[in-house]
C-alpha cells in the first residue's frame, strides 16, 4: 500500500499523544476473543488484514462484520470483555481519548438492552483513557422495536451522543433531523456518516439538514468546492479513516486519498481506524500511512493529533494539557 516508515518516524508516531474519534465497537472486535471462542475455526489470520486486500462491495464487508459480531456480542458482558481488550490496545499506542459507537441494531437483533451495552462499554474504560460512547443507528432503523429506544436514549446517563450509520444511498427519513435536534437540546454530541460511498451532497445534508459538525469520513466533500466552503464555515470536523477508505475501494490508492487536500485547505481532520476487525489496522498504522503515503510531515501529524483533542468532549484544562504534550514531542 505504501513504503514502510523509518524507525525514527515510527517512534515519533508511537510517542505522540493521540485520539481515536471514529470507531465502531462491533467492528473493533478483537480477533483473539473469537480464537478463544473457537480456536479451530479462527486459527488463521483473516485474509482482509493483508495490506493489498480490497472488499468487493460494502455489502460484503458489512455481512462479514455482522456475521462475526453476532457470534461474540451476545450479552453485555461480552461488550465489556471486548472493550477491555480494545481499550488496552489504545493505551499501548499512547491514545488518550476515544469516541466509540455501538450499533442500535444489536438491541433489535439480540434483545440486549441498550443501557446495559452502554454501561458495559463505559465500565471497561481503564485509567489513563477517556472514553465517550455514542449510539449509532441506520437511516431506516426507526422500527416498531427501536423507535421507543431511540427516543428514550437521549436521557441515558453516560451517553455522549448519537451517530448516523450505514449505507448513504438510503434517503434521510423525517424522524432523523428531529432526533438530532432533540439530542443537541439534551446536550449530546451529534455525528453522521457522510461523504464516503455517496458524494459531497451527503456532507451538505449532514451539515444543513442534520445540523451536525462531526462528519464521519466526509472525504468526498472534495468533489464540490462549495461543500468544502460550507464545511469550513460550519467549523466541521471530518473523522477520517484512510485505510478503511482504501480497503473498501472508496479510494483506489492511498496516495490519492483526499485527506491530503482537505488538510491543506484547512478542514479539521482527525484520524481513526473505523472497523479494525475488517481492515487489520491500528491508529498508529493510520499515522504511518499519512507519513509514508501522503507525505505528511511530523509537524502535520502533530496537528492531526491536536485536531482530535480540539473536538474531544473534555474540560478545557484536560484539552490544554494534552495539546501541550503534543507540542512537547
Characterization of the model:
The protein has 329 residues and is α/β, with parallel strands linked by helices. The protein contains 16 helices and 8 strands. Helix 8 (175-185) links the parallel strand 4 and strand 5 (189-194).
SS elements, strand count: 8
Helix content: 40-55%
The overall number of domains is 1
Globular, elongated, flat, extended or rod-shaped: what is the shape? globular
Write down the CATH class: Alpha Beta
Using the coordinates shown, work out and report the CATH topology: TIM Barrel
Q: Characterize the main sheet.
A: 8 strands, parallel
CATH architecture: Alpha-Beta Barrel
Radius of gyration: 19 Å
Strand order of the largest sheet: 1-2-3-4-5-6-7-8
SSE sequence, one letter per element: HEHHHEHHEHEHEHEHEHHEHHHH
- Derived from helix and strand composition plus strand pairing, the structural class reads alpha/beta
Strand content: 15-25%
* Poorly predicted regions: none
How far apart the termini lie comes to: 28 Å
Count of DSSP helices? 16
Mean pLDDT: 96
CATH superfamily: Metal-dependent hydrolases
Amino acid at each position: 500500500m505504501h513504503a514502510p516508515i523509518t524507525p525514527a518516524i515510527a517512534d515519533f508516531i508511537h510517542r505522540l499523544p493521540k485520539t481515536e474519534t471514529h470507531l465502531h465497537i462491533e467492528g473493533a472486535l478483537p480477533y483473539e476473543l473469537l480464537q478463544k471462542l473457537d480456536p479451530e475455526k479462527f486459527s488463521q489470520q483473516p485474509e482482509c488484514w493483508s495490506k493489498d486486500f480490497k472488499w468487493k462491495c460494502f455489502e460484503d464487508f458489512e455481512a462479514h462484520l455482522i456475521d462475526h459480531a453476532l457470534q461474540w456480542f451476545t450479552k453485555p458482558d461480552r461488550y465489556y470483555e471486548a472493550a477491555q481488550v480494545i481499550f488496552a490496545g489504545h493505551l499501548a499506542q499512547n491514545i488518550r481519548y476515544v469516541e466509540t459507537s455501538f450499533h442500535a441494531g444489536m438491541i433489535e437483533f439480540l434483545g440486549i438492552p441498550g443501557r446495559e451495552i452502554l454501561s458495559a462499554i463505559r465500565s471497561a474504560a481503564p485509567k489513563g483513557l477517556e472514553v465517550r460512547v455514542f449510539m449509532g443507528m441506520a437511516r431506516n432503523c426507526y422500527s416498531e422495536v427501536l423507535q421507543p429506544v431511540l427516543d428514550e436514549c437521549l436521557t441515558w446517563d453516560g451517553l455522549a451522543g448519537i451517530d448516523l450509520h450505514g449505507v448513504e444511498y438510503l434517503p434521510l427519513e423525517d424522524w432523523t433531523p428531529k432526533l438530532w435536534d432533540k439530542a443537541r437540546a439534551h446536550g449530546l454530541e451529534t455525528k453522521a456518516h457522510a461523504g464516503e460511498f455517496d458524494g459531497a451532497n451527503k456532507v451538505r445534508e449532514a451539515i444543513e439538514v442534520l445540523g451536525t459538525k462531526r462528519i464521519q469520513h466526509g472525504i468526498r466533500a472534495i468533489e464540490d468546492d462549495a461543500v468544502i466552503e460550507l464545511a469550513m464555515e460550519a467549523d466541521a470536523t471530518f473523522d477520517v479513516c484512510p485505510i478503511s477508505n482504501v480497503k473498501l475501494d472508496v479510494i483506489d490508492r492511498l496516495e490519492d486519498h483526499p485527506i491530503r487536500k482537505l488538510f491543506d485547505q484547512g478542514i479539521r481532520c482527525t484520524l481513526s481506524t473505523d472497523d479494525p476487525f475488517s481492515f487489520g489496522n491500528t491508529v498508529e498504522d493510520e499515522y504511518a500511512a499519512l507519513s509514508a503515503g501522503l507525505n505528511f510531515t511530523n509537524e502535520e501529524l502533530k496537528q492531526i493529533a491536536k485536531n482530535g483533542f480540539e473536538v474531544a468532549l473534555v474540560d478545557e484544562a484536560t484539552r490544554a494539557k494534552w495539546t501541550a504534550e503534543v507540542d512537547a514531542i
